[in-house]
Amino acid sequence: MIEGVWDSVSKWCGIPNCFAFSLKDVMELHKVHGMSTLHKEIVRGVVIVCCWRLWKLEMNRYLRTKWSKSWR
After folding, report:
1. To 10 degrees, the CA torsion angle through 29, 33, 34, 37?
2. Which of 2, 8, 49, 62 is 20 to 30 A away from residue 20, measured at CA?
């Protein structure tokens, strides 16, 4: 699932496909050569927002599972 997110982000931002093996790799996506400073800042912002949304989805899933187990 997460690989598909980064594939979509790289296509949408117009950067080559990325292979992110860690959060550090993801946070360095904006360091692609040949982009203007503005484009790099936009890509970095998109990456940060995607990371936040993925974290929020995972936390919601975790909390839903935790609450459903506690009510059994």
Report:
1. 60
2. 62
